[in-house]
Amino acid sequence: MNNIVVTIARQYGSGGKTIGGMLAKEMGVNVYNREILKLASEDSGINETLFNQVDERLKKTTLFGIMRREYKGELIPPESEDFLSNQNLFNYQAKVIKGLAQTESCVIIGRCADYILKDFDNVVSVFIHASPEYCRIQAIERGSQSPKDVDKFIARTDRYRGDYYRYYTGHEWSDARNYDLCLNSEKLGFQGCVDAIRSYINIRFGAQEQG
């Protein structure tokens, strides 16, 4: 095995994105989040703006939380009227994610990467969580929301992430069975989470970890 990929799903305010960045730095590898949208745009020829707009369109769709568009891996050809559909834009992101997993060690944040790569033997899937109180404090400290609005924002963000995951995978985002590791960042701390992930990699892959 020449490369190892870590996927990180996370509750808002749990520090999952920061933990992913710290892990990537220690491993000497790239970390991918919204960069995947740019890569998908380059691969498909579809304007990157459309990829960025998908999230906003889905947030405004009232049936989003109960509908399913489970990922099957098929790309829709350019001549089809569905070429620019939400599903096809997701499919191109999935294609990029699979390509990364096949060619380099890296850390991938969100994007249902754990599900897309579920059949890859070189992938470690992680879910980062923490108590509501801890997530609230972290969100306020990072200045993303005012204390007055932060609780609603966190609930809305996590609900959207859960709906997004269910929409494209048919599974529940917060189900521990979807992941190799579920880590509480409040109890372990950010560095503790990084250490736990690296320890798991060493146990599972032995001396194969490499950048």
Structure description:
The two termini are 12 Å apart. This protein has helices spanning 16-27, 35-44, 48-59, 86-103, 113-116, 132-141, 150-169, 185-205; strands at 5-10, 30-32, 106-109, 123-129, 181-184. The relative contact order is 0.22. The protein has one domain (8-203): 3-Layer(aba) Sandwich (Rossmann fold). The protein is α/β, with parallel strands linked by helices and 211 residues long. The protein is built from eight helices and five strands. Helix 1 runs parallel beside helix 8.
CATH class descriptor: Alpha Beta
Biggest beta sheet summary:
5 strands, parallel
Envelope shape: globular
Number of domains: 1
Mean pLDDT: 87
Major sheet: arrangement of strands: 2-3-1-4-5
CATH topology category name: Rossmann fold
Poorly predicted tracts of residues? none
The computed structural class is alpha/beta
Number of strands: 5
CATH superfamily: P-loop containing nucleotide triphosphate hydrolases
Order of helices and strands: EHEHHHEHEHHEH
CATH architectural designation = 3-Layer(aba) Sandwich
